[in-house]
């Protein structure tokens, strides 16, 4: 009786392993065709185009107000830093480096405008 159970179990395991081996090439081929980011450059370009489109639409909707506010800000300050984030919390490494450089040079007053919080600014010319 014990020998029969062991034989059945062995045949089931052999059948399962044969099934897995036959399905494996198809699974690996499917995994090879798919990737997490099909093309990171295209994905980044799409994000950038979406940001530009959003910024231009917002600027066109409030063109007079944005232009007046930015013109006043640029005339009243000698140094205006357009950055991602704020001086206290930069959101990118280039923004952080710009803040460090201007802080070490003791540029006072340092006026910074967060372009991510105000996307209409990117449409300003």
Automatic annotation (TrEMBL):
UniProt protein name: Uncharacterized protein
């Amino acid at each position: 009786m014990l020998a029969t159970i062991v034989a059945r179990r062995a045949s089931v395991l052999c059948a399962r392993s044969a099934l897995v081996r036959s399905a494996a090439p198809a699974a690996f081929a499917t995994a090879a065709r798919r990737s997490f980011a099909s093309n990171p450059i295209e994905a980044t370009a799409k994000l950038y185009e979406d940001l530009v489109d959003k910024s231009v639409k917002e600027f066109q909707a409030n063109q007079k107000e944005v232009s007046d506010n930015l013109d006043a800000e640029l005339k009243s300050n000698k140094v205006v830093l357009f950055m991602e984030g704020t001086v206290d919390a930069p959101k990118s490494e280039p923004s952080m480096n710009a803040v460090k450089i201007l802080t070490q040079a003791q540029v006072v007053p340092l006026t910074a405008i967060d372009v991510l919080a105000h996307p209409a600014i990117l449409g300003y010319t």
